[in-house]
Amino acid sequence: MINSATFWDNVADKYAASPISDKDAYQYTLDRTRSYLRASDHVLELGSGTGSTALLLAGSVDTYVATDISPKMLEIGQRNAQEQGIGNVEFVATDAGDAASEGAAYDAVLALNLLHLVPDLPAALANAHAMLKPGGHFISKTICLPEHGFPLKFHAMRTALPIMRLLGKAPPVFFYRIDELEEAVQKAGFEIIETGNHPAQPPSRYIVARKL
Ligand SMILES: C[S@@+](CC[C@H](N)C(=O)[O-])C[C@H]1O[C@@H](n2cnc3c(N)ncnc32)[C@H](O)[C@@H]1O
To answer: Which domains does the chain have, with CATH numbers?
Structure first.
């Protein structure tokens, strides 16, 4: 089985070229996220991919550090930032679960479409918590298990995952129920202040939490 960084390196070009699947849901959560940011903010994004969201939010904040486990994803982001003349985004290769080295330096930490991919959820949440200033926001979006019913497409994907993993065609994926995920966020020392499913099915849980 290939490791996560190699898997994401291998698919980085394809990921960068693929369109957003639900533009309305994306725009809604982008707008909600922007509403929590201030011009003086220092923002950290975990699992930023090619930095497409980072480049859209960078103009609303002071500095933005986009991190990812895949150097190839970050290379694409860096190139796009240069092409668009965006100078306040730094791209750094790191694992979301690694211990925070900079202390509580950030006003907001983002983890969008990431938490279902990290093998140690409590470690990633503890890391996000440690990197935030008191009162700072942790904003995440995570594909979760459907709350009602079990759409065929989702069932087929889940069944195929172990085989795809063996073939190097899928990364490790961990499916949480919404209540489990929210409990983990709260246990890490956050107060949840906004939630929603965007898209609704299968639920992509948008959670805004404040560091206690
Ligand atoms: C589904 S993509 C989401 C990218 C971006 N956040 C977005 O919403 O478009 C998941 C990203 O998480 C990264 N990733 C996976 N496991 C990671 C980990 N343990 N630490 C940091 N990044 C990770 C992958 O390299 C990939 O770029």
So the answer is: 4-211 (3.40.50.150)
